[in-house]
Design goal:
The structure is a single chain. This protein has helices spanning 9-18, 34-46, 70-76, 117-123, 192-197, 217-234, 236-242, and strands at residues 5-6, 26-29, 52-55, 82-85, 89-91, 96-97, 100-102, 107-110, 126-130, 139-140, 162-166, 170-175, 180-186, 205-211, 250-251. The protein is an alpha/beta fold. It has a single domain, classed as 3-Layer(aba) Sandwich (Glutaconate Coenzyme A-transferase). Helix 1 packs across helix 2 (34-46) and helix 2 crosses helix 6 (217-234). The longest helix is centred in the C-terminal third of the chain and has 18 residues, at 217-234. It is globular.
Length: 253
């Protein structure tokens, strides 16, 4: 039997994201989003060499003038295939919150806001949400403030919308007909019961819920060498602390 292989939660999420990227896509990653950035670079290295990858705050992967809004213009022209967003809260209907926790006029926490996230949620053909925590405080029945809506009226133009949520515990799928999340897959080390217990709303099961394949030795090797080197240029702390720390969790292959 081979030796156990270990990974950090961030590495698990990056590998999960890498497997969702489709070759030939134009893929955008926003600022302060190291997990999807690592996942997309891993995809480019292993699975989808013909993607056009745009990462804000990256000298290598941002082909536009510094400080420009070209990524947003790309989305507005309908040319952005995949984008990644997150929120302090995500609710059953696909809404996410980047503004306040608590009442808007008297919040307990005020955040930085959206900076184009609401438009990108509408205009990217697919949006994958991500959170490095999967708790009832994050996944709530109804967000305190709707930064961007998962469901829109029929008379509102929308190029795309939510596709998945990736967390360390699960991958949630989007049921467009119902306008709500379903449990599509559980991550290695988690279970259906664990995911449901840590989600603050009823989570219907996809027809066949299975466990995501564990990260392969090749995925982790590339993630911890080529990808880590590239990530260190824009996210040195993340690359140092979240990539390659093998004490986090172990499973036998």
């Amino acid at each position: 039997m081979s030796q156990p292989i270990a990974w950090t939660p961030e590495e698990l999420m990056a590998v999960t994201i890498a497997r969702e990227v489709r070759d030939g896509e134009t893929v955008g990653v926003g600022a302060v989003s190291p997990i999807p950035a690592a996942g997309c670079i891993l995809a480019e290295q292993l699975y989808t060499p013909d993607i056009t990858l745009i990462i804000l705050d990256s000298d290598e992967y941002y082909p536009f003038p510094a400080g420009s809004s070209e990524l947003h213009f790309l989305a507005q022209r309908g040319e952005l295939d995949l984008f990644f967003l997150s929120g302090m809260q995500i609710d059953r209907r696909g809404n996410f919150n980047l503004h306040v926790i608590g009442e808007y006029t008297k919040p307990t926490v005020r955040m930085a806001g959206a900076y184009g996230s609401a438009m990108l949620y509408y205009m990217a053909h697919r949006v994958i949400l991500f959170r490095d925590q999967h708790t009832r405080r994050v996944f709530v029945e109804k967000v305190d403030f709707v930064t961007a809506a998962g469901v829109t009226p029929e008379n509102v133009y929308r190029e795309g919308g939510p596709a998945l949520v990736v967390t360390p515990k699960a991958v949630l799928g989007w049921d467009k007909a119902v306008g709500a999340w379903t449990l599509d897959r559980v991550q290695p080390g988690s279970s259906v019961e664990d995911v449901q217990a840590n989600t603050g709303f009823p989570l219907p099961l996809a027809p066949a819920v299975h466990t995501n394949p564990v990260p392969t030795e090749e995925e982790l090797r590339v993630l911890r060498t080529v990808v880590k080197e590239k990530m260190a240029r824009s996210y040195p702390e993340f690359a140092r602390e979240k990539m390659g720390r093998c004490e986090a969790r172990s499973f036998s292959l």
